[in-house]
Request: fold
Amino acid sequence: MDVTRRDFIKITGATAAGLAVSGGHGFDLSPVRVHAQMLKTKYAKETTTICCYCAVGCGAIVHTSKKGDGRVINIEGDPDHVINRGALCSKGAALAGLVENENRLLNPMYRAPYATKWQEVTWEWAIDRIARRVKATRDASFTEANASGQTVNRTTAIASVGSAAMDNEECWIYQAMLRSLGLVYIEHQARI
Amino acid sequence: MTNHWIDLKNSDCILIMGSNAAENHPISFKWVTEAQRNGAKVINVDPRFTRTSSKADIYAPLRSGTDIAFLGGMIKYILDNKLIGEEYVLNYTNAAFLVNKDFSFNDGLFSGWDSKIKKYDRVTWTFQLDEKGALLRDLTLKDSQCVINLLKKHYDRYDLKLVSKITGTTEADLLEVYKTYAATGANNKAGTIMYAMGWTQHTVGVQNIRTMSIIQLLLGNMGIAGGGVNALRGESNVQGSTDQALLFNIWPGYIPAPSGKMAKLDDLLKRRAQSKDPLSLNWWQNEPKYIVSLLKSFFGDKASAENEFGYPWMPKLDEGKPYSWLDIFDEMFKGSIKGFFAWGMNPACSGSNAGKVRKALANLEWMVNVNLFDNETGSFWHGPEMIPENVATEVFMLPACVSVEKEGSISNSGRWMQWRYAGPKPLGNSLPDGDIIMELGLKLKELYKESGVFPDPILNLKWDYMTDHKFDPHKVAKQINGFFVKDVKVGDQEFKMGSQVPSFAFLQNDGSTSCGNWIYSGSYTDKGNMAARKKQEDAPNKIGLYPEFAWAWPVNRRIIYNRASVDPKGQPYDEKRWVIQWKDGKWIGDVPDGPAPPLIGADGQPDPKAKHPFIMTVHGFGQIFGPGLLDGPFPEHYEPMECPVEKNFMSSQFTSPTAAVYGTSADTFATCDPRFPYVGTTYRVSEHWQTGLLTRPQPWLMELAPQMFVEMSEELGALKGIKNGERVKVSSARGSLECTAVVTKRFKPMKIAGTVVHQVGMPYNYGWRWPASGKEESANLLTPSAGDPNTRIPETKAFMVNVTKL
Reply:
């Protein structure tokens, strides 16, 4: 039987419990090694992800604390992923540093015309204001027919770029929304 | 990729050209190394000696922007030495087709050139037909109008001496590459190509790839294990975002976006060319089912046969007019674009001619920038040379969460759709992009309910993708897969309303199915979420297909055009690494390109039920003669928009006659100009990703690769008195930046037509916002906003610069 790493963790977990009761039956494993595995996973939720950088599509395992702040403890290559078999490059190996990063944007920010500073705003305010700006620009520029008199029902005063950084499902609803608004200037990373 | 990452291990010869896989797709090298262990040869062709070169068996340098000359020489070598896979070429490609007698090529121009509008009329780029409209083929290949004979004639000029003069590659190096790669023309040998932006970012980008595709067809390398044409895509979901059509010219599933010429839905449904060949499957004939099902996914119950399924609500393009990235920033620079979304993107650094882009942003009335970190785009108004008090643009910068904080799928370069799970909750008040989009959509619907211009598409847009007021990726994934909107009988199978469509073969053109993207049909069925599968077992052919690990579009086919991997009797050309085979009256192995039987039956007679293998082309053949592009049916060498030579040694046509060029004051060029004497190119480092937007705010990665730099040869360093580590200024006709000199043996001066030409290279991973010094700027300040006529991808890989000591 091939034992995958994830099975291995389950087995070693069971064995560790067994050790206390029956004094070492089952697998011949170093207790130190078992202890090291336990430290990483005992108080953590384990989820799998696919690296967010290049398009090789390497698998990684994310350990998130079940206690305290609920943040990421560790991210490492997934040995059961058939493409990368646990390996990651310099960027992938640093994935935890992307998530737990003090430079991240944590609130919607707004910069008024001619202002010299950002100001923090609420989501509700930002979404409302953006929608109103979209509507005003769209309604003022909406073109029902082009120069040849063909029906085109579009606006060329609004453009969108992005994003290959979104999931398939997000990309799909985004293009549906943009097309419902009549945008034709829809582009993203694939073009550059 | 026609194939996939693991499949690289099956190759006998891997050509890495136009990419630096070892540094930019590092884990791909796991499989390149595996192939090498199995005896494969790795060839690397690159202007610079990279870490990919260091692992290669053969390295050959070339001048940036001369790939067609290099590869055209290989086509000539293959034809001159009769190294083609004859049966394959005759039966599976259009080599035997007869081209229109009025087609011609003369001194760099194909027939049909109109110098006034700078476009080709492609009326002669066609095939001869008989009186019934069926294709004429000459299977003896003797007719001078045979595609293969025109190909021979076209590349006869690409001899070693001339190719060497243009590319700067020595004749000995050229010959070694040609000989090694062409050896994969043998039936049981596989050769593959790994390319990336090194091929696409040229005014001849598409034709670079076309040249290689022709080579792969000639050598019988398409459809087989260890073969194919493999684009190494640079973003985790750029395959998926392309599939989902975040591009002006397509709707989801590569359905060409309609122009105003298509006034009625019926015009759209009847647009596809038909083939008179009963053996051609001509898959795009099915397009009407995909279009109607797509419109149903957009407008749900509001789409009916009576209202053309909502087709009139969809925006239309002007026929032939591009609305591409370069066009967006050209229009924005000129002031016609007022509002702008930069969603998960950083055009202030990623756009070529970034100075033009940054000026254009200041012309906007409003901009929405969604990202993980503050960046050069969102903060453009206080960037270099900007005076905030003069910038009227209203800017919203919205915090998106990281991928590990949400659930959903992405599609890798090998077309594998893989599901990701949420670990921690989104940090702070950041949100999944999906929630931001849903909320904005809901708000727009609310506003348009009150009043507004042409509100129907907005109000009728199906927008039920939330569960408990949160974006639900499962609901969208199911919509993308498609479902039956009423009880439907397909053949002898019955489906209940609301059940998931098992595959695109079941989609209908009468409004009874709703499907967001036909090529993803089969990814989320009543059997579950196929992208989430993790089975470790390989398929019986043991070539690394792992058919139940994740899901690949289309229909979980892991190697596209696999029907070309077998001979006309359905038996694999390579018994050891077979992909599919016809056994006991059916196909086994990978999911075949259609269930039709092999061309030749067991009785040795042609089977009338058979189909040609290249099912996505009209006639079912691989296209050596490719009539669909704007710049020619055969690739031809033209110089980049900026180059170090005074003429094109191949013809009187200096640069691509159809190149996309723009005319604002920011679009300046300098070719053969003593102010900018060196060839410049751009690339990436392993430690940063794209513009560095996600990696420059990370201390670990910044410590590994802290600075913008320019690499140059020791000879150029000596010539300019520049030492390794010194700060220098790099300038082009469009802009300049300061960076650190890396004087290295990795670049060598080249002899081009008897003259010494120096090349320098820069990573494009930097920008002023991070690191805090504000001095590490984007290489795109130097690059031109000119591009390929077909894709309009900018030419950021070959331009002219100067380097001076600070």
Notes: The longest strand of chain B covers residues 736-744.
